[in-house]
Amino acid sequence: MENNQKEDDTEEVNDTQEDPPAYTIEELLIRELDVFKLGLLRDAKPPFLMRYSEESGRGLIATRNIKTGEIIMEETPAVWGPKAKGACCLECGLELHKLSSFHFCNLCHLHFCSEECCAAHPRPECVEMQKLHIKTNSLEYLGKLTLVIVVLRCLLLPETAPQNWARIRLLQDHLENSKETKLKKLNQKFLVNFLRDIGLDKNQINNKEIHRVCGILDSNAFESSTLDGVESRALFPLSALANSSCLPNLTHVTRKDRTMVMVATRDIQEGQELFI
């Protein structure tokens, strides 16, 4: 009986120590694409797959012939924020020049141009922002908060919008190419220190993670401007996988609801790569 028991115990140990399944690059890309597609309409069937090459890394390859003018995909932003030189509404991006013109959220103290914009900012974001020490006493301070808001929103996504964080975290940050650069030093001196000043806990989000988010934004963010001149910055993770080229076959437009639409600018044959 003792010998049998030892054999059974050995078998149980072997069962629990099995190596995890190994995936090919193609299988990993399929899994990643499923995550990236969380930003598309639920029934969307994009006419492309992801493919990896040593020369250009990940890219998008047409799975069928695509006609000029055809919509390739419609993607919602994983994160959005205004891009302005001064203080502006954190919901619509309207720039304001007087402290008295702003409307502040009574709970999280973020600044907006109106009660309507204040009411539109997501409840999960408001809850997380309440944990920080956000001030409302100077236009200069609001300007600094405006400058870092996209990075801050990215860092809070694991709590405010986990699916959007899953989309973003798969993007490349290219930090290996930015060691000790002027931009990284500037981010450390201003952005990281400002986030610490408002109470972002380094035990929960360390400096490396902040720089990683900055790298993701610098490498992948899209910038747009409305007819009124309101500029914004956003991450559309799946759209960002289309490699750039001096001879693109795609163009993109951003709708009022912030959805990015990718459109073919010429006929694309099955098997060709999609470029912006």
Molecular structure report:
With 276 residues, the protein is an alpha+beta fold. It has helices spanning 2-16, 25-36, 115-120, 123-129, 139-160, 162-168, 182-197, 207-220; strands at 48-53, 57-62, 71-75, 79-82, 103-104, 111-112, 222-225, 231-235, 250-254, 260-264. Strands 3-10-9 form a 3-stranded antiparallel beta sheet, with no helix packed on it. The radius of gyration is 23 Å and the shape is globular. It starts with a helix and ends in a 12-residue tail after the last strand.
Estimated share of beta-strand residues? 15-25%
Measured between the Cα atoms of the first and last residue, the distance is 70 Å
Pattern of helices and strands: HHEEEEEEHHHHHHEEEE
Rg over alpha carbons: 23 Å
User: pLDDT below 50 for ≥5 consecutive residues: which ranges?
Assistant: 1-13
**Count of extended strands:** 10
Largest sheet, strands/sense/barrel: 3 strands, antiparallel
The helix-and-strand class reads alpha+beta
Summed up, the helix count is 8
Mean model confidence by pLDDT: 91
Give the spatial strand order of the biggest sheet.
3-10-9
Q: Share of helix among residues?
A: 25-40%
Spatial shape: globular
Notable traits:
10 strands, single chain, 8 helices, alpha+beta, three-stranded antiparallel sheet
